[in-house]
UniProtKB/TrEMBL annotation:
Enzyme Commission identifier(s): 3.1.3.48
Domain of life assignment: Eukaryota
Protein family according to the UniProt entry: Belongs to the protein-tyrosine phosphatase family.
Keyword Nucleotide-binding recorded: no
Molecular-function GO term, any one: protein tyrosine phosphatase activity
SUPFAM superfamilies in the cross-refs: (Phosphotyrosine protein) phosphatases II
Stated name of the protein: protein-tyrosine-phosphatase
Key word Hydrolase present: yes
Xref: Gene3D superfamilies: Protein tyrosine phosphatase superfamily (3.90.190.10)
Coiled coil start-end: none
Keywords associated with the record: Hydrolase, Protein phosphatase
């Protein structure tokens, strides 16, 4: 039986913690498997960080003044060798669209 406000607060906090953390128990085997998977992913990520791209891309179309407003994000540009070229009949427009072909 709860007799004081402090006991009520303690019980309330304990119940909230129990409800919010019900399904986070792991067996030793689950922990070891999860940890191994995490370490494998972490080591692969570190390796990827060390690798540098050997392919160079040209972004001439993307950085032309007439096309700058077509790029929503300044750091995400369509390389010239893999972007579609628009065929437009409208004067004073360009063939640029910030998109790429993907296989």
């Amino acid at each position: 039986m709860i007799q004081t406000v402090d006991q009520y607060v303690f019980l309330y906090r304990t119940l909230i913690e129990g409800i919010l953390t019900m399904d986070i128990t792991l067996s030793l085997q689950e922990y070891l498997t999860t940890r191994k998977l995490y370490m494998d992913i972490k080591s692969q990520y570190k390796l990827l960080e060390q690798l540098q791209s050997t392919v160079e891309f040209s972004y001439q179309g993307a950085v032309e003044p007439a096309n700058l407003n077509k790029n929503r994000v300044e750091t995400i540009l369509a390389p010239d060798n893999s972007r579609p070229y628009l065929m437009t009949q409208v004067d004073k427009t360009t063939d640029y669209i910030n998109a790429v072909f993907v296989n």
